[in-house]
From TrEMBL:
Keyword tags: Signal
Source organism of this protein record: Bradyrhizobium canariense
SUPFAM superfamilies linked: NTF2-like
Protein name: SnoaL-like domain-containing protein
Keyword Signal among record annotations: yes
Length: 143
């Protein structure tokens, strides 16, 4: 009986810390993922930007619905053609459920000297280097 109580007490004290470590690991991976994506965007590396998405991902923007990595790659090519630069993101919410991560936040960029900003939500799946965006919705903030 005493052994069972110690085992239960130990499990109760360990479980939250393991969950916290998993959450920290997922948040760290998500932060690195976003940093690498923003860097690719600012370099104009359309292939690296598209590689952040799963092969069958869906991206919804004010310009339309893009299904699949090739369509998403073309949408980024169009964005870069208009001179979008100085892209950055700030996550406001990040939630992990199993191997999925939901990120919600704000983005900003410029076309020429004119700043633009908006909001995004993205669902990522996978772990580490295998993490990919499976769905992203992007909006532009009202002036």
């Amino acid at each position: 009986m005493l052994r069972t109580l110690f085992t239960v007490a130990f499990m109760l004290s360990v479980s939250p810390s393991l969950g916290a470590q998993e959450k920290l690991s997922a948040e760290s991976a998500s932060a690195n993922f976003q940093k690498n994506f923003a860097s690719a965007y600012n370099r104009g590396d359309v292939d690296a930007m598209a590689a952040a998405f799963a092969e069958d991902a869906i991206r919804v923007t004010p310009s339309g619905i893009f299904q699949g990595r090739d369509a998403i790659r073309r949408s980024f090519q169009e964005a870069l053609k208009i001179g979008l630069h100085d892209y950055s993101v700030r996550r406001v919410v990040s939630r992990t459920e199993g191997s999925f991560i939901l990120n919600v936040g704000e983005w900003q960029a410029k076309v020429g000297d004119q700043p633009f900003r908006g909001y995004y939500s993205a669902i990522l799946a996978g772990d580490g280097d295998e993490m990919r965006i499976i769905e992203e919705t992007v909006s532009i903030a009202a002036p």
